[in-house]
Amino acid sequence: MSVLNNLKLDTEGFMTDKTQWTKEIAVEIAKQEGVENLTEAHWKVIEFCRKSGEATGKSPTLRQITDGSGVTTKDLFALFPKGPAKKVAKIAGLGKPEGCV
Amino acid sequence: MKTLLILGAGTGGTMTANRMAARLGEDWRIVIIDKDDKHFYQPGFLFIPFGVYKPSDVIKQKKNLLPSRVEVLFGEIELIEPEKNKVTLSGGQSISYDYLVVATGCDIHPEETPGMTDNWHQNVFDFYTLEGATKLHEFFSKWQGGRMVLNVAEMPIKCPVAPLEFMFLADWYFTQRGIRNKVELTYATPLPGAFTKPTCSIMLAKVLKRKNINIIPDFNLMEVDNDKQVIRSYDEMEIPYDVFVSIPLNKGAEVIKRSGMGDSLNFIPTDKHTLQTEKYPNIFIIGDAGNVPASKAGSVAHFMLDILEANLLSHMQGREMTAKFDGHANCYIETGFGKAVLIDFNYDVEPLPGTFPIPGIGPFTLLGESRINHLGKLAFKWIYWNMLLKGIEIPTVHSHMSMNGKKPIAK
Questions:
Q1: Do A101 and B295 touch (CB under 8 A)?
Q2: Residue A50 lies in a domain
Q3: Into how many domains does chain B fold?
């Protein structure tokens, strides 16, 4: 039985109940998003996004992540290929980033 | 005597000055500051590369667009000091205010992407400035075909539908010139599809396909490589070009950064419903100067105006601010060959099919192509100069989005 079974998600797969989030869940969501192993570098970004999300109530944009965490955009794409801001938000149990309108 | 100071006399600032001049009593002084004495009809820039409009069609003197009671100052704004309620110009002149409306907008920053400015306005262009649009027209009129690539460097940008319109007009323009079969059109976007909202994105993807325009989603621009003539993404995908048209990174004004009021893109954190800045109770924004999650387009600034007016007046009189901006946007998307699509949406409701503004009658079709939508787009230039900038309400089109005439999509 997967830890993902009872998760509340929106239609795009973002968690809707933040209190459900655990590190184990993050690992499983990351696998679904094509990130097999969460290394220390991954966790640094995830922790930053969770802190930022708690402070502002919103998912940080790509630029806010690079400015705030010190990880370069290039490295961020290597860690979370394709759309890093969206992927990290999903893994960190946050909503969809508002950057694109 | 109290002072309402407006920074920026573009679309948002001009309409605010006109509207507040009609509302505030003689005990208020209204001052507006801008660095440039010319007003540009920015939606018209899109048509310039294809020779539909000339530069003279999109320029007027700012002074002529403002009422006589408004004091107009031309000059560079050096610093805003919110704690002192004071704004200083680069010449040293300073103005104290009771209320401040920031309408300093946003601009393109090609220098933020490595390699982008190397061949700037030679075979790498923008069309969000009059200069870029004019130079691109000169280039296109001599071009004999090849690969044209259009890319949005990073969201958010001023007018998210303009890149699509540019592609549709390019398809039409090169067809008219008889060289469409020699031109390959590619649109590379950081978005997951053609547009930000799902239903509209699917609809526009079909139009792109029908017109034989390639779309490459999830493309995040890292650099422009002029030696190889490719643009490269952060995940090392390369797209070759002969002419590259860019919508470079958009940022708010430098003075916002100098004054320590902005986020990492110099947009001022603002309450998305009241339009009051988060930190300063007597400072409001209109248009694209703030970080509200709405399209950074003139139509949005126009719908903000009623809310801004109501909340400014309430706050000035010590009453609770009750007007709430809903993120309303209304965009005519030019699709070429004399047709256009109209979309109408807000923070919560994505663009839906139907008729606008009168249910069942229109005359405009929502989320569908029609000739009358195109005529609406062209008529908008007249409405812009004669009604919108003057803060006059457009009959039947309201600041809050209406569900009238819209057909919800079954999920």
A1: yes
A2: yes
A3: 3
Q: What is the pLDDT of residues B67-83, one digit of tens each?
A: 999 999 999 999 999 99
Instruction: Classify residue B183: in a domain, yes or no.
Output: yes
The answer to whether the CB of B44 falls within 8 A of the CB of B57 is yes
State the pairing for strand pair B339-345/B369-370: antiparallel
Contacts of A10 in chain B (CB under 8 A): none
- Residues in A closer than 8 angstroms to B351, CB to CB, are none
pLDDT digits (tens, 9 = 90+) for B288-326: 999 998 988 999 999 999 999 999 999 999 999 999 999
Question: Measured between alpha carbons, how far is B42 from B258 in angstroms, rounded to an integer?
Answer: 26
Domain final residue pick, B235, B250, B265: B250
**pLDDT beneath 70, residues of chain A:** 1, 98-101
ipTM confidence: 0.74
A49 is catalytic: no
Whether B154 sits inside 8 A of A77 (CB atoms) is no
- pTM of the prediction? 0.90
Do B186 and B91 share a structural domain?
A: no
- Residue ranges of chain B whose pLDDT lies below 50: 411
Report CB contact under 8 Å: B235, A83: no
Q: How far is B298 from chain A (nearest CA, A)?
A: 15
Measured CA to CA in angstroms, residue B252 lies from B118, B131, B327, B339 at distances of 23, 20, 19, 33
User: Which contiguous run of DSSP H or E holds residue A69?
Assistant: helix A62-69
The alpha helices in B344-408, defined as continuous H runs, are 371-383
